[in-house]
Amino acid sequence: MAEVMCAWHENRSLLPAISGFSVEGPLLGRTGGVPPRGIWSPTAREWERIAALGRYGLRYIVMGPDIGDLDDELDDGLSYRDVIDLCYANGVKIALGHFQHDAPELSAERTRAVIEHVQDRYGPGPEVLLTDHLYNDMPRAFRHVWRTAQERSRRAEQLAPVLAADWDTADLDRLLGPVPATLLRAAREGRLLPFLNFDGDHVDLEVCRRTLEHLGPERVIGITDDTSVPFLAGEELHHRQGSGLWYRSDGIVAAGSRGLDAQRRNVAGLTTDDTAFDHLFRHNPRRALTPLRAPAAAGVGGRPAGGAPRHEEHGRA
Q1: How far is residue 135's CA from residue 202's CA, in Å, rounded to a whole number?
Q2: Bridging pattern class, strands 221-223 and 231-232
Q3: How far apart, in Å, are the Cα atoms of 317 and each of 5, 215, 221, 303?
Q4: Which one-letter DSSP state was computed for residue 145?
Q5: Which residues contact 268 (CB under 8 A, 6 or more apart)?
Q6: Is residue 287 helix, strand or coil?
Q7: Which domains does the chain have, with CATH numbers?
Q8: Which phi and psi (to 5°) does residue 196 adopt?
Q9: DSSP for 58-85?
Q10: For 211-236, what is each residue's pLDDT tens digit?
């Protein structure tokens, strides 16, 4: 990974279509689609090496905001707050995602704490904090997608109360769950930019429609989660009939395979706003991927970080 980023950094004028890179993990909940080998607990020195990739094109890193309290120690003398600050000092933004699923209220509380910290220190503005794909890999109080014939037989019944409610006035904590409600409120308040997948496989398109109506396309980033290769972190992936998703051997969704053309068609069917697709897939991503400031090459505790990362030092990142 580091080798790829360094090569891009040295030749970026030849690759203008690539704006940067992102990483999912290693601080993630264990119920999502990231392979187990992508979830681990780095040392303080390893965090310095990961954050240093901000100087070579790493734009954001997906973290579970509910892995602990901000002052919980992750390594000797290194708190979760320190990890966040280390990333931002090196020009790497945080994307909230891959939550724990066993305590939604606590997850929401810890998410709000991370939002407050990032906005107080690096804001104000939505582009300083991102999310991973909205509704996926987080605790919910509603069904967000129906993927099998048996599941789809109950879609109308289960979707009805979600669509019947006025999201602008409803108690979204009860309707959707504390975590998605927290993220939606923060997005409406201009405190983060959430990602949402419009492929119709990750999230039901009617849920996508209602989310667009609630937030507006200027407050959402479209994400494809698309990969054309049948493997991820050493694990083989497979398709299921009638689905564009890639599945792991244990049946967990790992990625998608529907590109921008499919997303464009789906977005066109959700809104009459002709500018929506450009907001979702061009203007808002550009805002999110623009560094807040020139990376400062900071290490833990503000001390100078090491030199250019070496490929072998980042094998697990």
Answers
A1: 9
A2: unpaired
A3: 12, 33, 24, 22
A4: -
A5: 277
A6: helix
A7: 2-290 (3.20.20.140)
A8: -145, 135
A9: EEEEEE-TTSS-TT-EEETTEEHHHHHH
A10: 999 999 999 999 988 888 888 777 88
The conformation of residue 299, written as its DSSP 8-state character, comes to -
Residue among 131, 279, 290 nearest 216 (CA) = 279
pLDDT digits (tens, 9 = 90+) for 150-205: 999 999 999 999 999 999 999 999 999 999 999 999 999 999 999 999 999 999 99
What are the structure tokens assigned to 32, written together? Answer: 């999502």
- The three-point CA angle 317-191-70 to 5° equals 50
Give the integer Cα–Cα distance in Å for 99 and 107. 7
Where is 130: in which H helix or E strand?
strand 129-133
- 19 burial (CB, 10 Å; 0-12 / 13-18 / 19+) is middle
**Which pLDDT tens digit goes with each residue over 264-286?**
999 999 999 999 999 999 999 99
In a 10 Å sphere around its CB, with 0-12 CB exposed, 13-18 middle and 19+ buried, how is residue 276 labelled? buried
Residue 143 token pair: 């069904």
The enclosing H or E element of 247 equals: strand 245-247
Joined tokens for residue 157: 């019944």
Distance of CA 36 to the CA centre of its chain: 17
φ, ψ for residue 272 (rounded to 5)? -90, 0
The separation between the first and the last C-alpha atoms of the chain, rounded to the nearest angstrom, is: 8
Structure tokens given for 158: 């289960």
Two structure tokens written together for 49: 């090496």
